[in-house]
Design goal:
The protein is mainly α and 757 residues long. The protein is built from 36 helices and nine strands. A six-stranded parallel beta sheet has the order 1-3-4-5-2-6, sandwiched between helices. Strands 7-9-8 form a three-stranded antiparallel beta sheet. The protein starts with 6 loop residues before the first helix and ends with a helix.
């Protein structure tokens, strides 16, 4: 070390160490011990650096710089000052490696991400004054903007419209705030279900960082906060009044800039005074109410459009509440009476407005329409029309006749088509307003007999829908319809488990577990496995328990969590001893065991697992994808042990069979592994050709495969001397591994990055 203290260097080191301790919730002494271990020196060395003594070894400077950037999330300005104070010899190269100007490994892609709910076909009148107030709030330094009003005033519609506007590129002269992404979460469909944990997971999924969902809560929160600091993210929390998690609001109020939260609620909370920007949403202005009345009257084709006096009466009795206006106009249409007569029935005052409206509307409905509304309550979000008709127990002609009346009465909303270019291919979906759902919950007690039968039809629909998906390895497009139905299938799974419907639990779990794997929804997949395991155990079905255990072990092992998998491996061995598996179950057992052994670092033991699968007596009758998969993983084990010739032969065999069966993902995986063997043999051009084919067969959202391809491409470019392109490929690989939560692979790519520099 130098003998002259550099005050600025010491200040920067001290700040970095304190920031790491703060972010990771650790004592400073622990951080100092970890850093000293990295540089192979005693902890007192870190004390000297904090005092301003600059180390002469450039490797120590690099370790400290990387810790400041990676662990304390310090920015480019800090890094430049730090390297200048340390007199580091090649600051530009190190800055490019640690914080590249355009390819930061943690940066979000340029396109905007959001999970905003679909619009409904009911007419929306943009309310200028409250919209302006919300935009103004989002421009303030406060973290939370709260829209508060009575039910039916249009809080949700306003929040969605504002969020969509904030995602658009700003036009010349516009001053509205802009955001890179919007994350929507609502408590309206399952009151009390929204929590801080659920919101953190939703942020991770929406921003394409599913790997964060499997982290421990404190670590997860820290990583999510890091995402919120790097980009402008708008969080929308709808129906806040029913949320019971006490940790959520304090976290929102401390949201890091530049991200913001937009909250809708029917109830004001005193905690909002701690820094929230309040927007009170009252009734519509007269001009806005008149516009809504005119549009809705034309939509309903009212025979007698309201006159001036009636319009004034309607605005007055509803207080300008848009939902109430729609329902009153629907009553006039449904009864055929003059609008004034419908208004006369609502003289009990605003406190009972919606109770009166829904009671009147319900009394006008026939049994078919009532059954449709009650059936809709079984679906957590929107529902496809054919599914709703099935659960309501109605034929299509009867169903659509009743839906027309429900739509006119504004009791049933219709979502806008997802694909306006191909409307015939986009199914019509229905949804209900939270006020309607709350009213229907009070009707459920007297409709228990119908709801019991509807629930059975609902569960049967869920089982059948899940079964249509299953293990869609050869056709991932089969998973796309589940993007809309997954919330209902998950609700059916949890309801069935809570009511000891274990056979249905197993059927639904088997149908959708592959969906969760492909969509990288790890927390839900692990939870599904646990329900599956317990349902099989309660049924005494050892065979199904074996399958469920193997799925759980496979995922935990692929995530590098062998310690968590160990207990399940022990139980699996007990089951196998009492019920030796055959056929596909035998494959699942050996496949899970092989992945577990690899996670433990035992390649030779893992090799034995897949050799047993490929034994002719066992492989006979197995599906092709299982045989190909076993060949691939056996080759992985052999390659890890340096048996390259035998590994190459197996990869080639698996590749040929994958092509024959059209398994594109398996083609990509085996070509990638063959490319790595080519590289080890010095065949750079052939490796590049294989990687190009692998990339062509890899889907955009297959992040793990894409990451491994980028990692391999980096090795190719290093062989050809193109270090800049190699570093860019490694940066993308690190980003994708981080998104998937594959820490071991990410660290390997980071190590390669250091070597590439």
């Amino acid at each position: 070390m130098s003998s002259v203290a550099n005050k600025e260097f010491g200040h920067l080191v001290r700040g970095a160490v304190n920031a790491i301790a703060d972010f990771e919730g650790q004592n400073v002494s622990i951080i100092e011990a970890e850093l000293s271990e990295r540089i192979c020196m005693a902890p007192t060395a870190i004390h000297r650096f904090k005092a301003g003594y600059v180390p002469r070894d450039p490797r120590i400077i690099e370790v400290l710089a990387e810790a400041g950037v990676r662990r304390a999330y310090l920015n480019r300005a800090w890094l430049q000052r730090f390297l200048r104070a340390a007199h580091y010899h090649d600051a530009a190269a190190l800055i490019e490696r640690l914080i590249p100007p355009e390819s930061a490994p943690s940066a979000l892609p340029e396109r905007s991400y959001h999970n905003l709910p679909p619009l409904t076909t009911s007419h929306f009148v943009l309310r200028a004054e409250p919209s302006t107030a919300v935009f103004e709030g989002l421009r303030q330094r406060c973290a939370v903007v709260v829209i508060v009003s009575l039910g039916g005033m249009g809080k949700t519609s306003l929040a969605r419209e504002v969020a969509a506007h904030c995602l658009r590129p700003p036009e010349s002269g516009e001053h509205e705030p802009c955001f890179d992404a919007a994350v929507w979460i609502s408590d309206k469909d399952t009151p009390g279900s929204t929590s801080l944990t659920r919101l953190l997971d939703e942020i991770a999924y929406t921003l394409d960082y599913p790997g964060l969902t499997r982290l421990e809560q404190t670590h997860k929160r820290r990583e999510i906060e890091h995402l919120l600091k790097r980009r402008r993210i708008l969080l929308i929390v709808d129906n806040f009044e029913t949320i019971t998690d006490a940790a959520l609001l304090p976290w929102l109020l401390r949201l890091p800039e530049p991200s913001k939260a937009l909250v809708t609620t029917r109830e004001y909370r005193k905690e909002f005074q701690q820094g929230a920007w309040l927007v009170e949403l009252g009734g519509m202005a007269e001009t806005e109410a008149r516009q809504l009345i005119a549009e809705r009257s034309r939509q309903l084709k009212l025979q007698l459009p309201p006159d001036e006096a009636t319009i004034q009466q309607l605005i007055g009795v509803t207080g300008g509440n848009p939902k109430a206006i729609e329902v009153v106009l629907g009553l006039a249409k449904s009864t055929g009476h003059a609008l004034a007569q419908a208004i006369e029935q609502l003289r009990s005052g605003p406190d009972h407005l919606f109770a009166d409206l829904f009671t009147l509307s319900w009394s006008l409905l026939g049994q078919d329409a009532q059954q449709i509304l009650l059936a809709t309550t079984l679906f957590p979000t929107s529902v496809d029309s054919s599914a709703l008709a099935e659960v309501a127990g109605l034929s299509e002609p009867v169903f659509f006749a009743a839906v027309r009346q429900l739509t006119e009465l504004a009791l049933l909303d219709t979502e806008q088509l997802d694909d306006p270019q191909q409307p015939a291919r986009a199914p019509i979906r229905r949804a209900i307003h939270p006020l309607t759902r709350a009213f229907l919950e009070r009707q459920q007690a007297v409709q228990a007999a119908f709801l019991g039968h509807a629930r059975e039809r609902w569960l049967a629909w869920a089982v059948r829908t899940a079964a249509r998906v299953g293990y869609a390895v050869e056709d991932l497009a089969r998973l796309e319809p589940l993007d809309r139905e997954e919330p209902t299938l998950f609700a059916a799974l949890t309801w069935a488990f809570a009511h000891n419907r274990d056979a249905e639990v197993i059927q639904i779990a088997r149908g959708i577990e592959f969906y969760y794997y492909v969509r990288a929804q790890w927390s839900k997949k692990l939870y599904l496995h646990q329900l599956y395991i317990e349902a099989a155990r309660r049924l005494g079905d050892i065979g199904e328990e074996i399958v469920a255990l193997t799925l759980h072990i496979q995922l935990l092992s692929r995530q590098g969590n062998a310690a968590a998998a160990a207990a399940y491996v022990s139980r699996l061995r007990e089951c196998v001893r009492s019920h030796p598996p055959r056929g596909e179950r035998f494959f699942h057992v050996e496949h899970a065991s092989g992945l577990y052994q690899l996670a433990e670092g035992h390649a030779a033991a893992a090799e034995g697992c897949w050799r047993r699968v490929l034994d002719p007596a066992q492989a006979h009758g197995l599906p092709a994808h299982m045989v190909i998969g076993a060949q691939h993983w056996l080759a992985v084990c052999l390659a890890q042990q340096g048996k390259h010739a035998e590994a190459r032969s197996l990869y080639e065999s698996a590749l040929t069979q994958a092509r024959q069966h059209g398994y594109q993902r398996m083609v990509a995986r085996n070509q990638l592994q063959l490319a790595l063997l080519d590289l080890s043999d010095g065949e750079v051009a052939r490796a590049m050709g294989r990687l190009e084919e692998s990339r062509a067969h890899t889907r955009e959202r297959d992040w793990e495969q894409r990451a491994r391809i980028q990692q391999a491409l980096a090795h190719v470019h290093l062989r050809t001397g193109n270090r800049a392109v190699a570093r860019a490929a490694l940066l993308e690989a690190i980003d994708l591994f981080d998104r998937m939560g594959l820490a071991v692979e990410s660290q390997a790519a980071r190590t390669a990055m250091i070597e590439a520099s």
